[in-house]
């Protein structure tokens, strides 16, 4: 997973990266000291999570967050600031920030922000490089026809080895996680694009038919896709 940390205070960046890397050594970290350097990174790398300080040279962190979200709508942003004014928190909500992290933050507060990210994005961190690779392939290619065998061949390792590693690290099988991730994406489409038909949504999340989609959705969520859309809207 790619994480961006934007802050013009070097020690703040060092501390955050140290705390994150200690728990998630396989993540890749990018650093930006101002809006210009951050946007350059966003133009070159696919960022899943960004920690952005409000006060920095150039445009402030909230303006930068809005620009980042415009370029990469799926990116989640955590606003970091020593300023506890309600106006900042309200503007953070307006730019669709995931969380507002006050300085100085504790490790527990940082972990809570990460848990919120993982819950919203249906993300489960793997430890080994093989499982990390499989997770990234699911994230980027869930709409395509994916198989454990094909991913294992790309690494390359044996399918049985990858299957065992995936189950041990993630807590569920590759197929169960892939289906759960597809349903997670379908839930977002049902709400964000209410004009899409069930057939189109099932195709966009990589499920073979509307019947398969509806059956899997009800088993995982507890209600049908139609009732879920009606409830959320």
From TrEMBL:
The keyword Phosphoprotein applies. Residues 2-118 form the Response regulatory domain. CDD domains: REC_YesN-like (cd17536). Keywords: DNA-binding, Phosphoprotein, Transcription, Transcription regulation. The keyword Transcription applies. The modification 4-aspartylphosphate is found at residue 53. Residues 132-231 form the HTH araC/xylS-type domain. It holds the Pfam family HTH_18. PANTHER family: ARAC-FAMILY TRANSCRIPTIONAL REGULATOR, HTH-TYPE TRANSCRIPTIONAL ACTIVATOR RHAS. This is Response regulator.
